[in-house]
Each structure stands twice: as structure tokens, then as C-alpha cells.
């Protein structure tokens, strides 16, 4: 009968026969059709009239128990994430513990009748991912090397003009009414530059002077500092004193006097740096004349030949404080300085300044650091190209200018980000 032909083999064979055997096959089919009972013929005709799909026809023709079960429990309806086919529930459902994306998933089918409601729920679970354990608070995470250095740096980029003026008032390291010194933070430009909207130290110093020296007319710069440097910047004051029928100018010649003494090497400047590599000896001098070159607005100094008249004479004393073959903490001593002198001399001696992108690499390439430095600072090769320069003007010694004014020594302590790097590189040592 039709119920025995599960896969329709007899039907397929009957349609695939050649035209010569169709009469015999047709008679055989007729004989088989005659074997259907009247109820079976009526049922098949009803199925054809309903225009069932192929799946529904196969279910009704060969799996009558499904239809009987369907009539008992009512019509199956699709749930939120379910299916209307009972065969998907019984044969194609997800097994317990199977979850491709490591998350909990549910499938729900609803079976409804007039007076009852039945819910079938399937749930597959996978062990959730382990959450990272933190030693501190819930949101605590270990910062990267760059983030830790940036967190200890003076936040110039976050401050407005009034906040910077308040901060610089606290960073005045010397003020006797005639000589005025400010400890400039790293990242604050001294003057000039293409970005006219940015804040500069020369303009901010005037506002600091108004608060601390209201009688001072203006400040005269004596010793400036590059943006990437930190440390002492030196000014002299200009005070206008009005007396009866005469005008006297105080400190009119002090600025020129200091500049002249600096040219003659009478003022000592000490600068601390962290360099790559180790100096060849604990103490030595670099006496290499330098030639200034300007390309696309960027200054760079090169070593000049002995017979080159363009060479500018410059001398830098180097003292090793502590270090090894990978990195060192050094102190530089100069009597007079030109722009980029320290950076160029350090590069010529084979110990370039850490973070120096101009003089540190070869032929304009970024500086490459030993693996010892990268591991100590928790940095990758790409992150190391964003390291700032660690150079700080720590001390200026001015001898006695006149008999009534004794010599002075101005000191600016090392900034926190500089000290942090010394600790990470195991270079921290107290100065004698």
C-alpha cells in the first residue's frame, strides 16, 4: 500500500520507465490502486484538495501517528524563538551543553489548547568566561608604561590659562626682586611657534609677575628653555622708580650683565638626563664645534670639520651618575649653551637622549631601544616611539656680580615623571 512505500521508491520507478513498458506499469499501478480501501482513497483526495506542502503531505501519508498526536494536543504555534514543526523539537533540538558562542541560549515552544497551555523549554549552557581578578578595586587595571609616565607628568594639556598661572606661581624657585626663576614643566613652550592660539611661558610669566611682583613693569628673559625640556628659566626684573624731578631705572643693566657673563663662561648650568647606553668614562668633555641646519622649520646641529668657519664652538662636560650598558643617568655641565647643543653632543658621544626623535635614530629613523629598557618600562616597539625626552635643567650657579650682591645657586627638583623612570630603570641615586 502507499503506507509501505516510505521513500516513494515504487512511484519513482514507475515514472522513470521507458515508454515501451508504460502499459505494463500502468496496469500494475491500477491493480495496486484497486487495493486501497474507500476510506484511504477519500483521505488521499482530501489531502490533495487542501494543497498541502511536500512535508505536510509526507507527514500525513506516511506518519499518521503524528497527525493523531497533533489532533490530541492542539495546533502547534511558534514561540519567541521556537518553531512550529514538532520534528524540529524532537530530532533537531540543541543538546545540553552545546553552545558555539560560549553563552546561555534558550529555545521555547508553546503548545496551546482551549483550556490548557504547555511550555517546552530547552536550555543549553556553557561555562562562562573567567573574569579577570584584580588586586585592587573593581575597575582597577594595570596601566601601561606610557600611561604611568603620562600620569606623573605635569598636565599642561588639561589646563586653561588661569590654572596654568596658579600652578606657575607655585613653581617659582627664586625671586629676590631682581632675579626671577620659574621651574618650567615639560610640554610648555617658551615662546614663538606656528600655533598662535597655544599658551606660552613668556606670556604666562607676565601674569605670574603681576601677582608676585606688582611693582615690576616687565620681565627680561635671560635663559630660555625648549618645549620638551623641564627646569629653570631665568628672568630679570625691570622696575621703574619715580623720585622728585628725576627718574631712575633699577636693574637696567642686570640682564645684559648676566648674558655677558654667560658668554665668558662664568655661569654654570647643570642638566640631568637619561640616555641610552653608557658613557665611555665616568667623566669627560665633548668639545665638538657644531653647524646649524634648518629644514622645514626644524633645527638640527651637525658636527663641523676643523677647517669649517661655520662651526660654533661648544663644550659639554659629562658625568655619569649611575647606569649600565643599556641606559644611564648622567649630569651635563655647561658654561654657555646654544639650542640643541646637549642633544647633539650626546648623540655624537654614542649615548643619545631617551625620547629624542631627531638625534636618537640613524638617518631620521626612530630610536631603537634595547629589550632591557622595553621590558623595564612595559613598552612595545611602537609605544617606545612616543616616549618623551627626559632632560631637566636642575641647577644654575651665578657668581657675585657686585660686592653688595653675593653669588647665588638656583635649584629645581627633578619632576615626578623623571623620578619614575629612574625607579623603573633602577637608576635612582641620591646626588652627593
UniProtKB/TrEMBL annotation:
GO terms for molecular function: pseudouridine synthase activity; RNA binding. Keywords: Isomerase. It catalyses: a uridine in mRNA = a pseudouridine in mRNA. InterPro entries: PsdUridine_synth_cat_dom_sf (IPR020103), RluA_PseudoU_synthase (IPR050188). SUPFAM superfamilies: Pseudouridine synthase (SSF55120). It comes from the Eukaryota. GO terms for biological process: pseudouridine synthesis. Residues 20-53, 120-142 have a biased composition (Basic and acidic residues). Residues 1-53, 120-145 are annotated as: Disordered. PANTHER family: MITOCHONDRIAL RNA PSEUDOURIDINE SYNTHASE (PTHR21600), PSEUDOURIDYLATE SYNTHASE RPUSD4, MITOCHONDRIAL (PTHR21600:SF83). Belongs to the pseudouridine synthase RluA family. This is Pseudouridine synthase RsuA/RluA-like domain-containing protein. It comes from Pristionchus fissidentatus.
